[in-house]
Design goal:
InterPro entries: DegT/StrS_aminotransferase, PyrdxlP-dep_Trfase, PyrdxlP-dep_Trfase_major, PyrdxlP-dep_Trfase_small. Belongs to the DegT/DnrJ/EryC1 family. By secondary structure, this protein is of the alpha/beta class. The protein is 39% helix and 15% strand. The structure holds pyridoxal-5'-phosphate.
Length: 376
Amino acid sequence: MPDRTLPSFDLKRNFKRVKEEIMEALERVLESQHFILGPEVKAFEEEVASYLGVEHAIGCASGSDALLLALMALDISEGDEVITTPYTFFATASCIARLGARPVFVDVEPDTYNISVDGIKNALSERTKAILPVHLFGQMVKVEEIKEVAPGITIVEDAAQAIGAVRFVDGKAIKAGTFGELACFSFFPTKNLGAYGDGGMVVAKSKKLADRIFRLRVHGAGRQYMHEEIGINSRLDALQAAILRVRLRHLEIWNEERRKAAFRYDLLIAEKGLNEWVTPPRADEHNHHTYHQYVVRCQRRDQLQKFLQDKGITTRVYYPVPLHLQKCFQYLGYKEGQFPVSESLSKESLALPMFPEITPEEQEWVIDSIRQFYLK
Ligand SMILES: *Cc1c(COP(=O)(O)O)cnc(C)c1O
């Protein structure tokens, strides 16, 4: 065992900063003995809606369920196509397939790792029912360009990794989750706004879609025991909502700390002459990137990862197998070589330790260790 370690994220350090507020919130819910939905969840929904500047927010059990509920509300079903990226977390595509529709994959851009707008243009067909772009690693997709190439097509944002991210278009600030008809968030503990368990949310522009999702999350019942359609059981619980209400108040500061850490990595990589082997992630100049992950492209990735692990530094690979090559999606008929950028990213990408509390000294240790690997 190395005498010193650095995890890829350290939730314990973060908990110390908010422990008192969290304990107070937990006590409030425990005293109320109201655990599922209810006033805490409603308050959290209102607070997120107001933070984002949207009309409707619907809490649910996870980010994966948020995606499923969103597509259910749009009546996505057999015969429909939904355009998305193969370089993302599994849930982005499984929700499409689960409803009997076809995920149509489009490759990503090599610098931002986000879905290619030209690719979307080429993938459109009469069957395209929606586009499901992912704001990957905390950076928004080119929302205005997607709208332009696909006028009239419904957009559902997978904003699971991007709460607080912003894109500036013609002097206007557009927040992640506010440009699509629907948008989905995840409160998985390691996300920028994480719960202490599972949680998710759909935000909606129209009241009609919002009302449908409110119903779908409680078995399709508008009134209790009156089932207008077949929904699912996907509720946010009050303890998680109370925790998230506390954590939402700190989100902007934590995101800013992540950004500072990312700039520090950028600088260290350049200063220590690593650019020959390591390419830092690119933040598009129109984007306020919130660095859910700091993902570099690097040579001899697997050996580097092992070298760092032996020193005590944990890194992660997002994502080792792009979705079009997953066994469960073989039936879609995609072949290796079809999405070369996603495929090479899956072999070159490495997420360095990133969390709001990481220290400059720890970051220097990471970069010095990487340097040692390439110069040894
Ligand atoms: C985390 C994540 C999800 C799923 O969220 P869960 O809350 O874990 O179900 C969906 N899409 C992306 C891009 C994610 O990163």
